[in-house]
Amino acid sequence: MASENDTTLRFPVLIGDIGGTNARFSIVLDANSEATEPQIVQTANFKTIDEAIQA
Fold first, then answer.
1. Distance separating alpha carbons of residues 55 and 50, to the nearest angstrom
2. pLDDT confidence tier of residue 40, bands split at 50, 70 and 90
3. From CA 4, how far away is CA 42, in angstroms rounded?
4. How far apart are CA 51 and CA 28, in angstroms?
5. Contact 43, 52 (CB under 8 A)
6. CA distance 52 to 16
7. 23 CB contacts (<8 Å, ≥6 apart)?
8. Predicted TM-score (pTM) of this structure
């Protein structure tokens, strides 16, 4: 079990860049991996960040 002060990153990790026009999402599978090719969606097409991530 992780302690309250544990700063270890748990993988996989979703990373994103959310702008006014587009949002870009990638996954980092483990500490030795590069991020996957970003999936790009138009932010205006989604009401919530959850909807954009699931697209």
1. 9
2. very high
3. 37
4. 20
5. yes
6. 11
7. 16, 17, 40, 41, 42, 43, 46, 49, 52
8. 0.80
Q: Which helix (H) or strand (E) holds 23?
A: strand 22-28
Torsion of CA 31, 36, 41, 43, to 10 degrees: 20
Rounded CA separation 1/30 (Å): 19
Which residues fall within 8 angstroms of residue 45, CB to CB, at 6 or more apart?
A: 52, 55
Q: Where are the domains of the chain?
A: 13-54
Summarize pLDDT for 6-18 with one digit per residue, the tens.
778 899 999 999 9
Mean pLDDT of 43-54: 96
